[in-house]
Amino acid sequence: MNGMPLETRVEPTTQRLPVGVIAPEDASLAVLHHEPIFTFPEQLPNVRRTQPRNTLTLHDLVQYFRHQGVVEEESLCCAITLAAINGSSFGVEGYSGSGKTFIVDKLVRLLPEVYTVQQSSDQAIFRVAEQLNSSRFVYIPELQKAMQNKKAPIIEVIKDLTEGKDANKIVTARDGSGVVEYSIKSGITIIYTLAVENQFKKDDESSRRLIRFMTDASPDHLEAIHRSKAQSRYTLGMDEDTRAQHEARIREHLEDCIGLRDVHVIDPFADYIAELVPKTQKSVSYVDHYYRLIDASTRFHFNQRMSTSVNGKTYLFAALEDHFHVYGMYFTAFVETLRELMQDEEQAALDAIRHMNWEDCFASGERVMRTSPQLHAVRRRQGALEEWLERQRVHCELASYDYSTGDTVSILQGDHHAGQ
């Protein structure tokens, strides 16, 4: 970018209809007054007020990783960021030297309240329980180093926390005077990296709660890395002030998004996804990984999404764009995970999976918005449906942006996926 202003997507905000508060179905409840979507914190709690409004895209996020030296891996960078936004525990796995820790390190520097675990003894994880309990994220780089002992406490900590339980341990006091009881409280997001040569044998419950991402070890990616290294030797690059400003904007935006975890996401496209997902025993729980990334994408784009409140509870409405992005960056990996876990009799269900049809997906979402009894209260607010439809469009077309290039792309273009 060489000091040029950051690329941002121009939103047709002048055509947006105002967002109000839904009139509750119960007539005994007071009908609140209408407010615009950009009224903070009344509409979206825990979001700072900045001028101008800090509106970023996933392409801005990709640019950050590129300027930090990450080559390609756009889908991975976006997916792990969305997982962090949503508080979903995850790991990045790959061969030694594949860049997994390098990539996650670049994400971690953007996140608030991260504690990085440095292993020095079997009980080290519990001796820092106080620090862990004051953190939102726990980062365990190179998890295999802490797993040399198969009974290492850190493995049980990961299992307990990802199952939503406190991790408790009684250990001998360092001075030998007795025992000390430690407790690491649930609610902390686990982030780890792991060399696949030292595969972490997660049980079914932990696997369901941990999203597993993989680095790209393809020959094409290795070639791209070599090209990037060569080009860096004769490229001026971004000036440091612009780089710092870019990073600060991304960090602030992510903190705002993380602050929206209590804002409920309404996803009218979920019926279509339910039809698309292969019907295996594991898909019932693993599809939650996909849905959580949709929630995170909706929160990441909160400035472009319809927002409303009912009786003090705030809602954001997912857009087709959120599925366009998440489907492109994660759905293939989701299906491959199901293949690894399938029973022999489930082979047919996975072989019969059909491709995404974006026109049908949009029609399903629109039908839910127009007819679902669960959204009757939304339709009671004048202009709500029209606003939701308007927020699916860029320049009057069902379109999004490619997070790799920043280019506007039509969503209704067959099998084209963002980032691919």
What is the strand and helix layout of this fold?
Layout: H1 58-67, H2 74-86, E1 90-94, H3 100-108, E2 114-116, H4 124-127, H5 129-133, E3 137-140, H6 153-162, E4 167-172, E5 179-184, E6 189-195, H7 204-209, E7 211-214, H8 219-232, H9 240-258, E8 264-266, H10 270-276, H11 283-300, E9 307-310, E10 313-317, H12 320-341, H13 347-351, H14 358-371, H15 376-380, H16 384-390, E11 393-394, E12 397-401, E13 408-410
Parallel strand pairs: 1-6, 1-7, 2-3, 3-6, 8-10
Antiparallel strand pairs: 4-5, 9-10, 11-12, 12-13
Detailed description of the structure:
With 420 residues, this protein is α/β, with parallel strands linked by helices. It has a domain at 17-51 and 261-410. Helix content is 40%, strand content 14%. The protein has 16 helices and 13 strands. It has helices spanning 58-67, 74-86, 100-108, 124-127, 129-133, 153-162, 204-209, 219-232, 240-258, 270-276, 283-300, 320-341, 347-351, 358-371, 376-380, 384-390, and strands at 90-94, 114-116, 137-140, 167-172, 179-184, 189-195, 211-214, 264-266, 307-310, 313-317, 393-394, 397-401, 408-410. The chain has a five-stranded parallel β-sheet with strand order 2-3-6-1-7, with helices on both faces. The protein has a three-stranded mixed β-sheet with strand order 8-10-9, covered by helices on one side. A hairpin with a 6-residue loop joins strand 4 and strand 5 (179-184). The longest helix has 22 residues, at 320-341. It is globular, with a radius of gyration of 23 Å.
Summarize the structure.
By secondary structure, the protein is α/β, with parallel strands linked by helices. The chain has helices at 58-67, 74-86, 100-108, 124-127, 129-133, 153-162, 204-209, 219-232, 240-258, 270-276, 283-300, 320-341, 347-351, 358-371, 376-380, 384-390; strands at residues 90-94, 114-116, 137-140, 167-172, 179-184, 189-195, 211-214, 264-266, 307-310, 313-317, 393-394, 397-401, 408-410.
